[in-house]
Amino acid sequence: MRKKSLSKSIILTLIVVLGMFVLGGCGDKDVADKNKDPNAALKDRGSVVMGLDDTFAPMGFRDENNEIVGFDVDLANEVFKRIGIEVKFQQIDWTMKETELKSGNIDVIWNGYTITDERKAKGVAFTQPYLENRQWVITLADSTINCKADLKGKRVAIQNQSSAVDAVNAEPELVASFAGGEPVLFDTNNEAFMDLEAKRADAVVADEVLARYYIKLRGVEKYKVLEENFGEEEYGIGVRKDDVELLEAIDNALNELREDGTYEEIYQKWFAE
Amino acid sequence: MIEYILKLIPAMLSGLEITLSIFSLTLLFSIPLGILVAVGRLSKLKPLVKVIEFYIWVMRGTPLLLQIIFIYFGLPIIGITFERFPAALIAFILNYTAYFGEIFRGGIASIDKGQYEAAKVLGFTSAQTFIRIILPQMIKIVLPSVANEVITLVKDTALVYVVGLGELLRSGKIASNRDASLVPLVMVGVFYLALTWVLTKLFQRIEKRYAYYQ
Amino acid sequence: MLLKVEGLCKSFKGKQVLKNVGFALHCGEILAIIGRSGSGKTTILRCINNLVKCDRGTIIVDGTVLCKDQQEEKSVYAKPAEMLQIRKKLGMVFQSFNLFPHMSVLENIIEAPVHVFGIARPEAEEKANALLAMLDLQDKTSAYPFELSGGQKQRVAIARACALNPLVMCLDEPTSALDPELREGIAVTIEKLAEQGMGILLITHDMAFAKRVAHRVIFMEAGQIIEEGSKEEFFDHVENEKIKKFVIG
To answer: Which of B94, B97, B147, B138 is nearest to B116 (CA)?
Structure first.
């Protein structure tokens, strides 16, 4: 009996895979000549692929029904609706995001993506900032750490490849004073927070919007946020440098959303106190 | 709690689907290919042997994760582009074919050369000898190593996250991040354990089937 | 004449192991090739069974040429189709029997007839059962090789070699893996086969066994035949000093 169901599932997966091969071949990325509609060239593409780390609550993640949701996702849906093209969400490994963009596997990075010079140097063009953000330092409520200088000799946990790493590294002397001379890097912010709770890490540096989400979930009373932070920064949407039409179209749509109040609506949905 | 667990199951099942697809398709292709590689490696064609030795060296000498990254992100540079799933699958097949090839080579090499001679004087062609005499005996010899490798494969499937495929472990990580809870990860562990339990039992059965001779 | 060997030469890595060996084997005859290990006697058997190719020489099995001497060049071998017909005429029992461990006794015997020579399974099984009865193995039909004693394994190997009614039966050191008390049994079996008209070619360094069973004896040393004669001639009137030493021990 086991044999039968095994062969059945092999056949099923074969069909699934064949389907994937066929469907996978559909996305064409030809760009036709421009005409009068400013978004015509984009519309000819049919769709854009937006890359996101689907573990990145509350910006882009999967809900209990396995649907991709979040602040960025709502915003993106609205933006691309206005532009008039379809958006496909593609989960990616966050450490690979620029490689994914450059190789054309995705067209947009949009997932709490902080605007940095380093990323621009990697060939990413950013839209206007659409969300302000600070790099918070979070400790347990009873911690003796009260300012950045107190981080000396402490273990600091950060999500790998996040802008928090760049923000912290912008203060090399401070980093050198951390225990181990460098931050402890985790795959996700959740893991960084778990490490903090396990008291292996003494502090977490994370994006404010993410930190708010986790602190709310895990219990506000457990944590303390330092007055001092690692700088303010802005989230932007990244596209390939040569993809000028897409950049302009997103910028225009964002302006529209701000003007007609849709942006505020979405913001309130995710970040209302 | 129970309610929470039940809520998590659909997302995990969709992750499980990717995990099982990679797992079963990798086995489906890499076992027969492994036999071919083993036969080629034991052949008298010097250039073929050298090529296979090089291939096995590369596949066993570099991390599977690197191979997946190379096939998905590296090959497009020279104009070969695969979709996510095929890219991951190809990397898995290439990698596991090398490991199975070496296991099978060891199995074939450990069969007494008297078996070949007995088959030859009875008039068997080399193909008949391989299929009727060598292969059945090889299977018995390699079963424990193959079982080991298959269990490793179950867990290696988690590596496909690097090309953005949502396999079982990732589905657990997503839920864990969303809900700031360890429960999803415990569930993922239970899923893996269930899978490996089924496989362990399956191989025990197969080994029993081959226990009729010594 | 069932088997004719002429001018057989073979070298391994520059070392000549067979030098111009020639002999003949007739119907119902038991021919023993004796000599020390390394004298080349096993290589003769392997050449006849085409497990190694000779450098020079002619081997003819029941009128079919297995290989033909080309003077200065390597011998020319029969084509695969002919080779298969020659295989059918030759039976070979290995020193360590080389039974197929994953097959039962019956499957070992009918494997080649059914899968190589396309004989119908019932027919092959009938023949196999007759052979097993003759060799006193009827109760072992469905046993596996690991369940058999050395003597039983040897008889299965003989049955397997007999399954295609060969004309020539080759046995490599038939007594080496047997307890001494089983020698008489294998001697009787070999005689039975010879009585049916088979030519028996056996290789041994066991003098007593050769004396018990052989009709004719060939003595080899350093790749050459030094003495050949009927058993009586050989054992009663040995003149060569070397052979004397070997025979007496």
So the answer is: B138
Neighbours of chain A (3+ CB pairs under 8 A): B
Residue with tokens 């010594």: B214
Distance of alpha carbon C226 from alpha carbon C220, whole angstroms? 6
The answer to whether A24 contacts chain B (CB < 8 Å) is yes
- Element (H or E) spanning A47, and its range? strand A47-52
Best mutation target among B110, B122, B129 (most C Cβ atoms within 10 Å) is B122
Contact A188/B173, CB-based, under 8 Å? yes
User: Angle B202-B207-B212 (CA atoms, 0-180°, nearest 5)?
Assistant: 140
> Which chains contact C through at least 3 pairs of Cβ atoms less than 8 Å apart?
B
**How far apart are alpha carbons C162 and C198 in whole angstroms?**
10
Interface contact flag, B137 C111, Cβ < 8 Å = no
Q: What is the pLDDT of residue C248?
A: 66
Q: Which residue of C has its CA nearest to B137?
A: C102
Q: Which residue has the tokens 């080994």?
A: B207
What is the least distance, in Å, from the CA of C236 to any CA of chain B? 37
* Domain positions in chain A: 36-130+236-271, 134-232
Task: Report the distance separating Cα A124 and Cα A127, nearest Å.
Answer: 10
Distance of CA A148 to the CA centre of its chain: 26
pLDDT in tens, C204-232: 988 889 989 999 999 998 888 988 888 88
Chain C closest CA to B213's CA: distance in Å?
6
Q: Would you tell me which CATH number, out of the four given (2.115.10.20, 3.40.50.1370, 3.40.50.720, 1.10.3720.10), belongs to the domain B2-212?
A: 1.10.3720.10
Interchain proximity B178–A187, CB inside 8 Å: no
Query: End-to-end CA distance of chain B, in Å?
Result: 51
Q: A169, A217, A170: which is closest to A189 by C-alpha?
A: A217
The answer to whether residues B159 and C126 touch, using CB atoms and an 8 Å cutoff, is no
Q: Which two tokens stand for residue A166?
A: 């760049």
| ipTM confidence score | 0.91
So where are chain B's domains?
Answer: 2-212
CATH dotted code for A36-130+236-271: 3.40.190.10
Contact A246, A225 (CB under 8 A): no
**Does the CA dihedral C123-C128-C133-C139 come out positive or negative?**
negative
Cβ atoms of residues C87 and B123 within 8 Å:
yes
pLDDT, tens digit (0-9, with 9 covering 90-100), for A50-69? 999 888 888 999 988 889 99
When CB atoms are compared, the residue of B7, B176, B182 closest to A64 is B7
Task: State the first-to-last Cα distance of chain A, in angstroms, to the nearest integer.
Answer: 56
Nearest CA in chain B to A25: B83
Strands (E), chain B: none
Min distance A66 CA to chain B CA atoms (Å): 5
Distance, in Å, from the CA atom of C76 to the CA atom of C41, rounded to the nearest integer, reads 22
Q: What is the pLDDT of residue A8?
A: 53
Start-to-end C-alpha separation, chain C: 33
CATH architecture label of C26-46+79-248:
3-Layer(aba) Sandwich (3.40)
> Chains B and C: how many Cβ contacts under 8 Å?
55
> For residue A80, which phi and psi values (nearest 5 degrees)?
-75, -25
Fold of the A134-232 domain:
D-Maltodextrin-Binding Protein; domain 2 (3.40.190)
Average pLDDT along chain A: 84
B200–chain A Cβ distance below 8 A for any pair: no
% of chain C at pLDDT higher than 70: 98
What are the structure tokens assigned to A62, written together? 């999967």
The pLDDT mean for chain C works out to 91
Q: From chain A, pick out residues whose CB is under 8 angstroms from the CB of B174.
A: 54-55, 61-62
Structure tokens at C192: 């039975």
